[in-house]
């Protein structure tokens, strides 16, 4: 199982703090640095320093890291027009030398849309828009150089686009789709995704959703093994239980609310359970950007035992 670091900068983190986490994650051998794509703090607490744009941040990190993969879990389809998103991600992919992955979803946090004047249609329309965005973004990337791309949908129309710039990865950067939906989400994953992710759920629910996604692949005539399966989990690891509890208190979470918590050996056992039901990657959500020793502990005492 590959371990990736997943951050939530809207909860309070500057670019410099994100850069520090990404660099330590790279130094310690984690596979990727991912971040959420939100414009408003979720829940109560100090809102400073305010949000940072995910793709602006990843563009900076593309030039300040060398190996680690970079991406969003997940960008909201409500935030950016699909043609603009395709251009932005392709440019960041080129800036990184081909290390970018795009997680894309419907969006769900209505308060951030209200706060910043972003339209927030009903959930059915958001799924319709997501499907069209996936078709446009992947279509633009996969169009051969010198050819044109057009798309005529209900919500978006792309006419005779030169489909440039091209990303460094060919035919395109990996696309990640995730979530809990029982019907449309698995279908979209089977059609468009390179990876399917389910966040913050117990092993039993992960097993059920993975089963739906595999079935959707079979219905679509796709080999289910061609789709990478992953989970995102909150993590709190300590050399002993006292250290683990201090880390939980520092981020304001009761231990019982953390998906994977304990000493390194306990964390290894918990992650292995996700691996046993098919998870090939685990995104470890870390909230405290200044606790870089947490990353170092997981890298030294957990990572070697879950690979």
Q: Quick summary of this structure?
A:
The protein has 307 residues and is α/β, with parallel strands linked by helices. It is built from 10 helices and 12 strands. Helix 1 runs parallel beside helix 10, helix 2 (54-64) packs parallel to helix 3 (82-96) and helix 6 crosses helix 7 (203-219).
Question: Which characteristics define this entry?
Answer:
307 residues; alpha/beta; TIM Barrel; 12 strands; 19% strand; globular
Explain what you see.
This protein has 307 residues and is α/β, with parallel strands linked by helices. 41% of the residues lie in helices and 19% in strands. It contains 10 helices and 12 strands. The chain has helices at residues 15-27, 54-64, 82-96, 110-116, 123-142, 184-192, 203-219, 241-250, 264-276, 292-301; strands at 2-7, 32-35, 69-72, 75-76, 100-105, 149-152, 157-161, 175-178, 195-199, 228-237, 260-262, 281-286. The strands form 2 sheets. The protein has an 8-stranded parallel β-barrel, surrounded by 9 helices. Strands 6-7 form a two-stranded antiparallel sheet. A hairpin with a 4-residue loop joins strand 6 and strand 7 (157-161). The chain is globular.
Topology:
Elements: E1 2-7, H1 15-27, E2 32-35, H2 54-64, E3 69-72, E4 75-76, H3 82-96, E5 100-105, H4 110-116, H5 123-142, E6 149-152, E7 157-161, E8 175-178, H6 184-192, E9 195-199, H7 203-219, E10 228-237, H8 241-250, E11 260-262, H9 264-276, E12 281-286, H10 292-301
Parallel strand pairs: 1-2, 1-12, 2-3, 3-5, 4-5, 5-8, 8-9, 9-10, 10-11, 10-12
Antiparallel strand pairs: 6-7
Helix pairs in contact: 1-10, 2-3, 3-5, 6-7
